[in-house]
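Figure S4 source data
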Amino acid sequence: MVKLQLQYVPHYELQHLSSEEKIRKLLKIVKAEKIILLEGKLSSLEEAKLIEITMQEIKGKFKGIEICTISSSSKNLTVLESFSKTVYSLLLGKREGLTIIGPASIIKEIKRDPDKITLLTSSVRRS
C-alpha cells in the first residue's frame, strides 16, 4: 500500500517565525516526504528564498519541491467588503489562501485554476 502524507500547517505556527525559520520548518516537513497544506501564503521574497535554498539542498533522494498558492479573488467586491478584507489582512496577517508545498519526487504536476488546485502525484517509493 502506498501512503500519502499531508500535513496541515496553520498560520499561527509560522506567524512569529523569521523568514529563515519558516523556510527551514517547511523544508524539514517536505524532506520527510509529506505534502504541506499551508494556511495562507508566503511572501514573494519568502517563496523565492524557499526555492533558492531548495536548489542548494538537492541531492540524493531529495529532488526539490513543487509549490502552488491559491487565494480568493478580490473581483466583484463592494467597497465595504474590500475595506473589511484589507483591515482583516492587516490585523491577522496573510491568512487568506492556501499554499501546497511538496516533494518533487511525489508531486508529479500541480494545476491551478482560479478556484481550485489539481494535484497529481506519483507513487511514493520507499527504499
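Figure S5 source data
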Amino acid sequence: MIMEQQAFLCLFLFLVSFLSLKILLKANKSKGKKLLPCPWRLPIFGNLHLLNPNKLHHSLLSLSNKHGPLILLHLGSIPTIIISSHDVAEEIFTKHDITFSGRPLLTGPKKLFYNCSSVTFSTYGEHWRQARKIVMLELLSARRVRSFETIRVEEVEKFIAAIKDLSVANLSELTLSLANNIVCRVALGDKFADGGYGGKGGVWLHHLLKESQRFLGGFFVADFFPALKWVDRLIGFQGRIEKNFEQVDKFFDRVIWEHIKKEKEEDERSNNINGRGDKEDMVDILLRLHEVAVLHGGFLSSIDHVKAILWESFLAATDTSSATITWTMTQLMKNPRVMKKLQEELKQATNGDTHRLIQECELEKLPYLRQVIKESMRIKPPVPLLLPHETIQSCQIQGYDIPAKTRVIFNIMAISIDPNVWEKPLEFLPERFEGSKVDFKGQDFEFLPFGSGRRKCPGINFAMVIVELALANLLHCFDWSMPDGMKIEDINMDENIGLTTHKKEALCLVAKSKGSFHVHGTSPFSATSTFSIPNKPHNSHFSLSKKHGPLMLLHLGSFPTIIVFSRGIAEEIFTNHDLTFSSLPLLTGPKKLLYNCSNMAFSPYGDHWRQARRIIMLVLLSTRRSRSF
C-alpha cells in the first residue's frame, strides 16, 4: 500500500513538473509576440469544456461574441484558431491563402481516404495539386457536368413520380436517395445505382455512406490528444472505423473489377472501334488515367488514389445536395409568402404548363429560385464549419502572430448571420439577394457556404444543378402542406450535427399534384405512345416543333433524343460542335447487316471511321475515280 502511494506521488509530481516546464518554455517562446485572445482553459483538456459537441458551431459563435471574431482555443493539446468574421476571412483568403492551405491529418479522413489521398483531405503540396487538377479538368469540368444532364433529369423524373404516389413524403430520405442515385450513376454507372425512392434498394450502400459520414464528423481522442491515440482502440472507435473502411475498400474493389470486365467485353464486341467519350462514368475516366499513370508514372499510379477520389465524390455530393434541398423546403414551408412567390415564377416560366417537368435549360429563367437557395444556404449552411485548415508556416493576421501547424476553423454560420453585415440576419428574406452580385463562388467573404481560395469545394457546379433542378420540380409539380394534425409551427428546426448539418427530425410533407406531368416537359407523349410516330416521323416531329420549339428533347423509349428543326441551330452544331455530334448510335439493323457497323456511314466516330472514310474518299470516290466511271 505504501509503495503504491509512493508510486502515485511520484507520477503526480512528474506530471506537475512536466506541465510546469512546458508552460514555462511556451511563455518564454511567446515573449515579444502579440498573442490571440484565448478563454481561460483547463490543464490538459484546454477549452474542450466550453464546447457543446451537439451544437458545435453555436458554441463557437457564443465564444466569438464574447471574445471577438478571431480567437485561440486549445482543444486538448491542439492550438486552434476560430474565424467568425468576414473581414478576417477576407484577409486570410486574399493575402495568406497558401499559408492557410494545409490540412491536419485527422483520424477519420486518414483511414477512410487512404491516408488522406483524396482532394479535400490531402495536405497541401504536389499530391494535392495533381489530385485537384484531375477532379477539376476530368471529373467536374463544365463540359463533364453538362454531359451528366440526362442522368439528372431521369432521376428527378423518378423522384417526382415516387412522391406523386405517396400519401406523406419523407423528403429527408427521398432527397438523399435522389442525390445518391445521381452520384452513383455518374460515378459508378447504372449497374450500381439504387434505382428506388423509399424502397429497399441500395440500403446497404446508404448505411455504409452514413456510417462513414459519422466517422468523418466524429470525435477521436487522437485528433486532440495525439499521445493518447491508443485510447481510440481501447474504447472501440478504431475498430469500428477499420471495419467501415474494409467494407468501403471491398465495395470499390468490386466496382473496379466490374468496370474492367465490362470494358474488356465491350472492346471484344466493338473491336475497339471508338472510345466511350461522354458515356464514361467517373470510374472509367479514373481507370483510363490510372493506366496512363502506371505506364508513364504519375499521381494515379496507385489504385488506392482512385478509390479515395471516388469515395470522396460520393460523400461530398450526396450529403450537401440532400441537406440543402431539405433545408430549403423547410424554410419555404415556414415562409408561405416566399413559396407562393417562387411558384408564381415557375408558373410564368412554363406558361402555366403543369403537364411537364422543368428542364435544366430553363433554370436560368428562375432568378428568384437562386435567391431562395442562397438565402437558405446563408441561414442554414450545409457545412457550417469548413473542414479544418492548418497553417503551413507562421504569419500575422490582424496584427496577431500565428504559429505554423496551427489548426484553423472557419465558422461559416457565424459569418453568414453577422448583424454587422446582414440586415435582419435571422429572417428568411431571399429578396436581399435581388440585384446583388453576392454569390457562393468564394469571392464574397460574407457568404462562403463552399469556402474560398485554394481549398474551395471543387464540386459547386455539380451540386448546385442537382439542388436547383430538384427544387424547381418539387415546387412546379406539387402544392405542399403539413400532414393531418400538424401545423407549420410544429416543424422542428433542430440540427443533426456532423460534417454536414441535416435536420434532426425528418421533413415529412403532403404533396398535392398539380397535373399529369411528363418527361422533361418537351413531349406530351408517354414513352409507349412515341411508337405511334414511325409512319410519318418527320411530320410528327414537325408538329411537335411547332408546339415546343426548334430544339427539343424526346424520350424514345429509354433513349433521350434531340430533334433539330432550325437552320440556325444546325449551323451552330456543324460549325462549332461538329466533332461532338459526329458519332452514331449502334442500332440493331446496321449492326447486324453491316458487320457490327464496320462500314463508313454507320460506324461510330473514331479511328475506324477515319480509316474507312479515307479509303472511300481517296480510293473509291475520288474525283479522278468518279471521272473514270
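The CA atoms of residues 360 and 465 lie 8 Å apart. Residues 582-629 form one domain.
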